[in-house]
Amino acid sequence: MAELVVEDIVKEYPTRTERLVVLKGCSFSLSAGQALAILGPSGSGKSTLLHIVGTLDRPTSGSVRLGGVDPFGLAEASLARFRSERIGFVFQDHYLLPQCTVLENVLVPALAAGGVTPAIVERAQTLLARVGLSERLDHLPSEISGGERQRAALARALVMRPMLLLADEPTGNLDRAAAAAVARLLVDLQREESLMLVLVTHSLELASHFPRRAELEGGRLQPLAGAPSLSPP
Question: Looking at the whole model, is its pTM more than 0.85?
Answer without folding.
Answer: yes
